[in-house]
Design goal:
Elements (H helix, E strand, L loop, with lengths): L5 E22 L14 H6 L3 H14 L4 H13 L6 E22 L4 E22 L6 E2 L8 H4 L9 E2 L4 E22 L3 E18 L12 E2 L3 E17 L2 E12 L23 E13 L3 E26 L3 E26 L4 E14 L4 E5 L17 E2 L13 E11 L3 E11 L28 H7 L8 E14 L2 E10 L7 E5 L7 H8 L9 E4 L4 E9 L1
Antiparallel strand pairs: 1-2, 2-3, 3-6, 4-5, 6-7, 7-8, 7-9, 9-10, 10-11, 11-12, 12-13, 13-14, 13-15, 14-17, 15-16, 17-18, 18-19, 19-20, 20-23, 21-22
């Protein structure tokens, strides 16, 4: 065997830092200011047969469906005149992240056939998470409490600084650090021959993560302050792939891999803003994936057809919401922990480009998939409502089984098709258009309503009026209407003496199509009686919530370079 022909080593040190802030309103001395708060919607008044209030609510939403800032300032100024704290405050949820990375990379070309690649990585991640006051909105200060708690002690966001008045720029509400350390190793061997190329790769990693509470939360006095137990995961992965060259224009590409992946920090702690509690029986995800592609390349047509299958096991998801009908008729703000989730993704993808003339290119693409839950995962709830309803002294519910098997995963359109063309003129201008068709988009379902809590009364027995056929209809997953979007793109460039001038423009959704791009079932109606009563209304109070795609949008860019 020939000696090593080339060895390259690279060592690098990387430090990254950044801040993300999302602003919102808090209110502990006033009513909910959101114009879409459920008690302000027409449906709420209709539920109470108050037609005049429903009409007024509709007029307010249609004609002025934005925040009434004057009302917020007026309430704060009124409180300030009586030496009272703000009713409202504008704040931001902040993440201040820092990451240190050290890499050692080795690339070795042994001979014309074999090359080796390897990498060792060390990462240290630190994330400071807190709420920060942006503006007092005309007031003097804001009381740092949770007004929804039922005792003075539980109201305190930080028992170490009770009844604290905060001002602009100060931290409040919640304050904690998330820390993670990752050590990983990667190795890959690549082989190249006349008819076939293939590779074999493996990786091994160890991750340790921990939460550090900087506030002692009144609702979780014993589990919020200080460092949590460290969460340790050892993960591995193997992957192999090959490309078989039938001839110069026809190729077959195949890949298969299996890996384990530690849960994200977000899905590791059940309520990271308020306590150190980690998810019970937390597991690494197990992912198996394979795909096969046929590739055709010719002077006129380039195309690719791919079939794929992916299986994900032991996934974890956490949701937060108010739920009515917990253990009968109780209402609570809950953290819903769904664990042991299995998912299955299978599909076909096709892409084609045809250079029909020197200036005109036709393009087409298709993606058809089926993304479903593949088992009935475990579900439990946590809350600060200890010893109430289904919650024990630790604020944790019993474990349920959520019957999600074969429900569709809300991952955008499962099917998408696109056809279009592109024209490039020799005089340095070009124009293109695509028409895109989308189908099989589903609402994100509420897992709690697919558990025994849905049909169980406070006495532990099934609701006397429970009707299985009605329940099946209530729990049917909504499928959105198909839709299409037409996009245009074009540009022109000039050279004037030593200057290059270019103009680029796009129009997305040219026909101003209105469509639902996603949505979710509200978990508020957590049992049969609550959900049936709400859906019986002409306009449900807690119906599905939707996201809508943008209407026609326009973009223009001009640049000069020299």
């Amino acid at each position: 065997m020939e000696s090593f022909r080339k060895i390259n080593t690279t060592n690098n040190v990387f430090y990254q830092f950044g801040k993300i802030g999302n602003s919102r309103l808090d209110f502990n001395r006033g009513s909910n200011p959101s114009p879409i708060y459920y008690q302000k919607l027409p449906s709420y008044s209709l539920r109470n047969n108050n037609l005049s209030d429903a009409y007024r609510a509709q007029e307010i939403i249609v004609n002025d469906g934005q925040l009434n800032w004057n009302t917020l300032f007026k309430a704060n100024r009124t409180n300030a005149s009586t030496n009272s704290e703000n009713a409202y405050v504008l704040y931001e949820d902040r993440n201040d992240d820092k990451q240190f990375t050290l890499n050692a990379i080795l690339n070795t070309e042994i001979n014309n056939t074999l090359s080796l690649n390897g990498k060792l990585t060390y990462k240290r991640f630190h994330s400071h998470n807190y709420a920060k006051v942006l503006d007092l909105l005309g007031g003097n200060g804001y009381l740092d409490i949770n007004n929804f708690a039922d005792t003075k002690t539980k109201m305190q966001n930080d028992l170490l600084n009770p009844d604290r008045i905060v001002g602009k720029g100060e931290q409040f509400k919640y304050n904690f650090n998330l820390n993670a350390t990752v050590i990983s190793a990667f190795a890959q061997a690549q082989f190249k021959y006349n008819k076939i190329d293939f590779f074999v790769a493996t990786n091994l990693s160890k991750i340790t993560s921990q939460r550090e509470g900087l506030y002692k939360n009144g609702r979780f006095e014993n589990t919020s302050f200080g460092k949590s137990a460290a969460l340790n995961f050892t993960n591995y992965g193997v992957k192999s792939g090959s490309t078989y060259k039938i001839n110069g224009r026809n190729l077959i590409d195949m890949n298969v891999g299996y890996l384990t992946q530690a849960p994200t920090l977000r899905n590791s702690f059940s309520n990271a803003r308020e306590n150190n509690n980690s998810v019970k029986n937390l597991q690494s995800e197990k992912i198996f994936s394979t795909d096969v592609s046929y590739i055709r390349r010719s002077p006129i047509i380039t195309s690719r057809l791919t079939g794929y299958y992916t299986s994900i096991k032991e996934a974890t998801e956490i949701s937060f919401y108010f739920a009515d009908g917990i253990g009968g008729d109780n209402t609570a703000f809950v953290q819903e922990i769904l664990s042991g989730i299995d998912k299955k993704q299978i599909g076909l993808e096709f892409g084609l480009e045809a250079q029909v003339t020197a200036t005109i290119k036709l393009k087409g693409a298709a993606a058809m998939g089926r993304f479903t839950f593949a088992n009935n995962p475990n579900l439990y709830l946590t809350s600060d409502r200890t010893n109430e309803g289904v919650f024990d002294e630790n604020g944790q519910s019993e474990e349920y089984t959520s019957n999600l098997n074969n429900y569709k995963i809300a991952a955008g359109p499962h099917n998408a098709f696109s056809v279009g063309f592109e024209y490039r003129d020799p005089n340095y201008w070009w124009f293109g258009a695509t028409t895109n068709f989308f189908s099989n988009t589903f609402v994100d379902i509420a897992p709690l309503t697919r558990t025994s809590n849905f049909y169980t009364d406070a006495d532990g027995l099934t609701f006397p009026n429970y009707d299985l056929n009605v329940a099946k209809n209530l729990l049917q997953q909504e499928k959105f209407n198909n839709y299409k979007v037409v996009n245009l793109v074009g540009g022109k460039s000039w050279k004037i003496t030593k200057y290059y001038i270019s103009v680029f423009a796009t129009v997305n959704n040219l026909l101003n199509e209105a469509y639902k791009s996603g949505g979710f079932e509200q978990g508020r109606n957590a049992n049969y009686n609550e959900l049936r009563a709400d859906k019986a209304l002409q306009k449900p109070v807690f119906g599905n919530k939707y996201w809508y795609g943008r209407g026609a949008t326009y973009f223009l860019n001009a640049s000069i370079s020299f």
